[in-house]
Amino acid sequence: MDFLFGTVSNAALALLGALLLDRWLGEPQSWHPLIWFGNWATRCRKAWQLHATAPKWLQRIHGVLAWSVAVLPCVMLLTLLLWLLPSWFEWAVGTLILYFSIGWQSLREHATAIAKPLHEQDLLQARDAVGRIVSRDTSVLDETQIAKAGMESVLENGSDAIYAPIFWFLVLGPFGALLYRLSNTLDAMWGYKTPALLHFGWCAARMDDVLNYLPARLTVLTYALLGNCKRALWCAWYQGRGWKSPNAGPVMAAGAGALQVSLSGAATYFGEVQVRPTLGEGPEPTAKDLDQAVRLVDKGVYLWALLILVLI
Asked: According to its UniProt record, in which pathway does this protein act (predicted)?
């Protein structure tokens, strides 16, 4: 760890600084580095993607090349920067990289934008708000379906947007957090199972699965410790394993079990109705349960920060 980040205490202080910055400033809207990376990734896709009629193995190779060209130069540039800068500057660089890699306050704001109109019975505004963070069709969702979609997104993104970048930051330093965030961004851009992206986006989806595997299991334990532990672990093991995503399933099942609600069910994606297995146990959620999901994620952040500051 000293080789990757100077000293362990620097990592803990950088984590604390990044979390405070995130809660204070939130996510930059017009100048976030991920916006620039998204533009770069779009250019890489245009340069390397083949037509969907090309052999799938060749599409996958081009997808690997596009992923590598999009991600590796950014990680190498950061490595060079850390090598050139004086060691006392590592804390500032680590703090900024982690700040740009996590989305704690952004997740809370998106959830509040859904919960507030739900509490006020304003379904039109709630549908619009949930449609900004999920890929399913939200135009005809009722109150329960909106609450479900919001909770599923909050619980899953608690892992993707908060705990996973912190995990890789602790394991590999600033370039671990950067590698994870760029990989996760490419999965969000290229990881869909549409005809155009099924094979080209294969590498982006698999890399995201690999990088999320351990953080997702730690998230399961986090949700379990902070809620109904027995039900959370049971749901993660017996329900999450059958989910289409090897990481999102256990995480959402654990969160639903911890909060004792039932999630999932039928949802429409890209014009196709998908009947998804139930996650969790208990009544269907309401706006109050969405509030509880945000509090569960918040308590998990506090727990992680406390353990990291105490243990390292």
From this structure: Cofactor biosynthesis; adenosylcobalamin biosynthesis
